[in-house]
Every structure is written in structure tokens, then in C-alpha cells.
Amino acid sequence: MKAERSIVVIGGGIAGITSALELANSGFTVYLVEKEARIGGQAASFCCKATEVCTKCSACLLPQKLSEVASYPQISILTNSMVVGVKGELGNFQVEVCQKPQYISPQKCIACGMCTEVCPTMPKAIQSPPPEAVPYSYSINESQCLRLKGKKCNLCREICPTNAIVFGQKPERQELNNIGAIIVAIGFDVFNAREIGYLGYGRYPNVLTGFDLERIFRNQGSLKLSSNGKEPKKVAFIQCVGSRDENHGYCSQVCCKYAMRLARLIKHQKPDAEVTIFYIDLQTAGKGFAEFYKECQGNIRFIRGVPVEISEAPSDEVEVKFENITEGKVDRENFDFVTLSVGIAPRKDSWELAKVLGINLGDDGFFDIKEPFNSTETNVEGIFLAGACQSPKDIPDSIAHGISAAERAMEVLKRCQ
Amino acid sequence: MPVRMGIFLCDCGGSLKNIDFPKVRENLENLEDIAFVDITHNLCLEEGEKAITSRILTENINRVVIAACSPEFRERNFGELLEKLRLNPGLLSLANIREQCSWAHEGDVTRKALELIMMAVGKARLLQPVERKEVAVNNEVLVVGGGFCGMKSSLELSQLGIRTTLVEREPTLGGKLKKLEGFYSSQIEAMIKAIEKAENIEILTSAEVTGVEGKIGDFKVRMRGTKEILRSFGAIVFATGYKTEVAAGDFPLKPGVNIISQERLVQLLQAPTLEARPETIGFIFDLSDENPRFPTLATLNNALAVKQRWGSEVYVFCKNVKVDSEGVEKLYREAREDGVMFLKFDKNPKISADDGRVKIDAEDTLLGEEIVLTCDLVVAEEKLLPAEGTEGLSSLLKIRTDSQGFYQEENVHLYPVSSERKGIFFVGNCRGDLDLGRVLADISSVVAKVYELLPPGKVIVEAERVKADPQKCVACLTCIRVCPHRAVQLVQVDSEKVVAEISQLACDKCGICAAICPAKAIKFEGYSDDQILAQIEAIGVS
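YS: structure for the whole thing
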């Protein structure tokens, strides 16, 4: 049997991108199928956590890979697309992909920005891409666009110098034929902290998640004010939210590290802020992290045990109820804001893809592997896993796993040639 | 050949309105050596490619300047297009008039755009072609270390059709795996059999690496076994593993005191009969925060095995249970459900001998109480350390080690298995504290990297990008000292003169040598002193 040298990678996050690059480097043709309008995944919303020195959070690794992937002719990026059907077997799959209407063709858009200038709505229905976006093209917000709401507006189409804007599109189905192997790299969901009622997320404005904080730092560069307009002086982090509990029999592996890095960043920007981290077991493995933890111990308070309740306190503060072990009693303390260190959860739509591909889900809801010595192969020959959809992983581990999946795919295809 | 330059200006579909393109063109046309100045609309699209192609085919130019968006987006594609048109990509010079000019300012920026383009023109005049040539390489791989990592790497490499030599200093393969409880021993046996059967794996046991010279594609490796061997390999994978040691400072390891290592415990667990069943066993680990993954896994596995097989009372003392590896949280839960007690301390416990038994004096931070426990047997934490000989190999390879003596990766986050020297890789616990999942990822990564760097047959390299001029070189050795990639070596040109030569295969194009060379003998094409000065002079600054 002749195995085909084309591979479909499902998911354009850091793991999928890494797999795609690795395969393209070894001469394979890659279709990178991404559900969103842009590739980059979750890592694209993380912030740089450098203080006076780099704290090695790895958030900067993505842009580098993004620009590489964009300039590779062997990699076709299919955005707004989902895999809806798979036929065939290892060496020769047929993969059916459904693409949502894009309105602006990423192949034609040159990101000149003239469409936004003429767009009459407020806020503008056509938005510019963030600087590191791939594909680097404009996009139309369906709920804002006059034309898509049935009105007669054609301004953007008239001015577009490359005729990149097309209305009246319908979802398109296409079949990718002669696919040798499939790599699944759909990533994870950030745990929804609303599921744990007593932590008050979504009810109290000054209860945030680690993910919210990442975005605040990324978009604003610094922590400005809490919702009451006050400079935050007392800040708490609560670990293991959505990890290591009755519903999650695993450690998310990223939260201790991001919490400590964010805590250091807050201390760096506001040296007089008091930062407390409530934890069960601190995870400090990894090269150089033990030293970083020692530095943290100098000016961050660590309290063993996670709080039992969070409630609202006067002047928009948050009251945290926790067990004071040294004195053997329950303590209450007020904070300006509390960050819930939310973990990595399996994607809610995993099972749909599992059904399409015929691959198994494990106990925790992540995709299952075939055998213990092989962390990328699934029960279906020719379908591989990469990144956090297999089990929780940080950015460097996702990169390493992405490379692994690509290597396994190459090897299996080589064997069946 | 006289310089004949073609300039393409891209107005990005007419969107760069604050640049007066006809005026820019007029000014550029007055410069010397200019064959034409074209204003185009979308160089990044097919129409742009056509515009460039037709001009280059008819105008017989030998330098190209493109003023458009950031080189980040299109530099590579423009280079590939020139190559297709039989024009060396080294003769291309770019000016970024979009992100760094038009978009960065309000109001008219024609003058700045013109200056940026003039700088690119000034540089383009001095550009030299960068020739590419194919070099034959040896794509056989040497794997050093016959433990789990070394064996699995060899197997996977051989499955990709790469010939591998596996060298192990012990008389048999298998490494430390046999000493671990709960490890898949039957699968290890199967792995050893598969390696012995594989046609393209050669096994050298009782042999050690004693010398490494050369560069990727051709490492000359000296090995000492029953006899001296000198062989050439394209790449070397080090899988030299780790050793474990009980820290004597933390435990009173005296004869007659019942404190044993994990390794000894596994021997007892695997022995067919047990002399005296210990009633109470204490495990202590996580005394320091360094390298916790490996000791955590060993402790959890062994504590569970003791509980299940001997039914003893099992107490585990630790600071934090390091569960941030796949499956460890489950193992921790299983141990607790089976009755293993976990006690967490902040200050390290006191351990003392107590009439043949061992007394552990610890605080329990969860209960906030002092706990004194007398055990029949205490199993001490084993620290994970670099394997014997790591230091010797690292100085032999001229590759640094980290603060704990493990091999230092090129980039822990981006290229964890690569070293600073191209073609030399580290895999598994010889580069630090890893769990099984991460070890497996390492192994696949190394295989992928070897396959990518040394595809069977030939490898294409960009030759002559960084070059040392033998006339100017005074063999001061500065470049050899600073090159992190060990790409520079001395070569004899005649009976009297030795000069530095840069291997294009090993060179990573970082430019450190070119910047530091006191004799200005090393030139980095595209970034040479005269090219940078020409850019500055092009806008009348000097």
C-alpha cells in the first residue's frame, strides 16, 4: 500500500502548529484545520510575565511559531473550519471539512484597513487583526454588520482593493482526499469557575480567574484597578480550582506556576501589595523552578489549605474564609481581589470529535492513548494526539508533545509504505 | 559586473495614503545604478508575483529592492520567488514602509519612506550572492546509553530507516529499569529482544565514548571497549541517564540503623521471602524542592507496594506531593485509599536512632501538631543526580551543564532535546528530572529532530553566509572561544599558517564571531560592517 504524504492536523493551537511545522519540515503537506478565525489557540491570550528578568513563562513562544507557519507553502490553513466526517484508514483517509462563511477571504485580504475606515457602524463591524494574528486578515462581526442584518450597505466591498469581501456565502463542505494520517490537537477548555458556587465567581466582581488576569495583563500591560476603582493592595490566589477535586482526578500542572509568576508580576509592579497564595501541594518541578519558588518565598505569603468560602465584604472587598492551621481555627480575611487559579479541563466538544473519528475518551474526559509507552497513538491506527487534549500540559510540554505526534505519524506512515 | 537594480514599491492596495509614491519614485530614479522603479499594489498576491516575474525576466537586473510590509510576512516568499527566477536570494534587500513607517505615524511620511528605501538601496549595492550547495552527510546515529531512553530512541530511529549504533558501558542493556518497582518489566524484555533483532541497530556493550571530534554529519567518535574503535556518525544522542543517592546529611546512615534506600527496598520487595515483616514503615521525601518528580513517583509506587504486599502501617512524610505529572494524582489517591498515611511538614523532620528502630520527629501542618513516630524501617529519599561520567562527557563535548550538573539544553522550552552543538542531542533524565510522559516526548522529539536534520542521503546547506578571510585571520582563537555552537575550527593552509574556518553545517548564523573578530576577518553576508555603514551613509549621516 502506498501511504500518502498529506496529513490533517485538527486544531491550530501551539501543539497543532508545532506538529504542522515539524511535518512540513520533513516534506509533508499539511492541512491545519482551525475552528476559530485565527490560529494560535489559548496560548495567544496569555501575557508575558517578565519582571526585571524573564520568568520563563513561555507565552512568547507562540508568535515565533505563528509567523513561521504562515510563510510555509506546504501548510494550508483552513480557518473557521471543523472536521465533520472521516472515512478510510491509515495511509488513506478522506476527511470532510465544513467551513463557516468568512466574508473576508484571508487569501485575498492584504490587511490594508480601508474597509474599517469606511464601515459606518459604531463600533465598527470590521475589525483589525491583532498584530501577531495568523492569518493576518480583517474579519466581520456578523451581529454588527449592516449588510448581514439585511440593510443595504456595500461600502467595504466598494473600497476593498483586492475584492476580498464576499457576502451571501453559505457554509462550505469540502473533502480532503488521500490523507495519510490525522493529528488531533484540539486543546482544552479553561475550567469554568462558576461551577464551584461557593467561590463566587461571576457573582462578585473582584473574584477573577487566572485566565482573566492573563488577559488583563496582556491587554493593559499592568493591573490598574479593581472594580471599585481602588488600587489593589491585598491580593489572593486560590490554587486547584477545577483540579484535584472529586470531579477532576488530575493535577492541571500549570496553575501553581502561572500563579507564582503572576504573583511575582504583581509584586514587581506594586511592591507594597500583599500577595497570598492558598495551596494544597505546591508543584515546583521543572528546570530552574525550585530557585524561582525560593525567590517567591521572600515576599509572597503561602498558606497551606484552600479556602472554604468566599463572600462579599464592604467597599467591594472580598472576604475569604480559611482554616488557620497554626492556630487551629477558622480565619476570615479581606482582599481587594481574589484570583482563582483555574485548571485545564477537557474540551466540552471532545466527544463529538471522538465520535467522528472513532477514538476513545479516558476517565477524565481527555482523549485516551493506546498503550502506556506511547503517549500519542490512539485506538485508531493513523490518528494521533498532540498537546493538552491528551492530558494537561503547559506550553513547552505541548510543543514537545506536538513534535512527538508528528514523529509518530511519520514513523507509522513510513512503516506502511 | 556593474550593479543594475530594480526597485518595487508596494502601496498595499492603495492604503498607505500618507506616502506620496510618485514623489518617492521620482527621487529614487535619480540615484545611480537604478534600472527601474515600479509602483505596485499588492506584491503579496498573485498579481504582485506576476509583476515581479515579468520585470526581472526582461530587465536583466542583479539587485532587487522591495519596499513593502514587514519582512516578517514575506521575506521568505520573495526569496523563494527570486530563486525561481534564477536570481540569488542574497541579492534582495527589503525596506519596511508599512509597519515601521506609514502605520507608525500620523501625517505625511514620504520623507521617512524615502530614507528607508535609500538605506535598503545603499545596502543592496554591496550585497553578494549567498550560494547554496548540497553536501553529502553520514546519517548514521550513535546513541549513548542502553537504558530505557537509549533503547527506545534506537528502536524508533531504526523504524524510520536510520542506522543506529547503541553503546552501553555495562555488559547488558536495560539500565536502571530493573531497579524500579511497578515498572513494566515484560515490556522492557520485549524491547531488548526487538533491539537485538533489528537489522539496522548495532549494539556495543561494555564500551564507552572517549573522544568526539568534528561536526554534524561527520562526528568522529572514539570508543573504548574490548578494543579501541574510531567511527563516524552524523549525529549523537546522549541518553546517559541519572543516578540516585541518599543524602547522608539528611539521614543518620549508621550501621545497625534501619534506614534503607528505595533501591534496597525494591530488592526486598522482589525477594521471594521476607525475613521479618516490618510493622511500621516511614517514607521521607521532598526535603528539598529540587528534582521532585522522580523521587515522588518512586515513593508513591513503593509505599503502595509495601502496603499491598506486606500490609504494614505506612506513613509518608513530605513537604508537598508533587503530582504535576500524568497519572500521579491518581496514584496518590490510590495510596491514600489503600491506607497509606500522608503527613506534610514545612520544617524538615528530625530523624534519630531509637534502640534498633528509627524515630521520626515531625510537625504535621494539617493538624498543627508535633508527631513522634517510631518505625521499624525508614525508607530515605533518594536524590536524582546526573549519572557518573556526565561531567567528563560534557567537557569532552564542550557542552555546559546546569547548576545541578545535568546537561544544559539549548533552550529548555523551545528545543529541550537539542544542545548548543548541532547534531548532539540529550534525551531523558540526563538533562534533568522528568517523568515518563515527558521522557516519551523527549524520545520522539529527538527522533524527529535527527530525521529533519539528516534526511537520508543529502543535506542542503546555505554555504558562505559567514566566512573567515584567510588573508586577514591571525589565528587569535577569539572566534573559537566565543562560538557557542563549536562551528569554528583551525585549519592548516600551508606549512606556516593556520586560519579559522567556519563550518556552515554547524554554524547557527548568530553572528557573534563576526562582531567580535579583532582582525575583522569574519564577514556575515548581509550584515557586514560596510553594508551597515552604507545604509547609514545612504541617508547622509556619517
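YS: worth flagging: The radius of gyration of chain B is 32 Å.
IM: good catch. Also The first strand of chain B starts at residue 5 and ends at 10.
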